[in-house]
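Second opinion, please. Please look over this fold, written as C-alpha cells:

===
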Amino acid sequence: MSKRKNNVALLPFYVIRAAAGGDRDAIADVVKHFSGYIAALSTKRLYDEYGNSYMCVDDTLRAELTSKLVQGIHKFKVA
C-alpha cells in the first residue's frame, strides 16, 4: 500500500477496481481498511446511574455504516 504525507496507508487502485467489480475479497479489504474509522464514527459516550461516563461502540450503527459502505462500493463505477 502506498503512503500519504501523514503515513496513512491508501488502498491500491486495483483493490478499489476489484471491489467495484464485485470481488468479495477486495470488498472485505475495503471494509477492513475503513473499520477503524467506522468504529470511531459509531462510538458513543454513555453515562451510568452515578454519572460516570464511558465510551461504547454502537454495534447497530457500526453495522449500518458498514452496510452503507458496501452499498457505495457496488454503486462505484471505475473507468
Summary: The longest strand covers residues 43-47. The beta strands are 43-47, 53-57. Residues 13-74 form one domain.
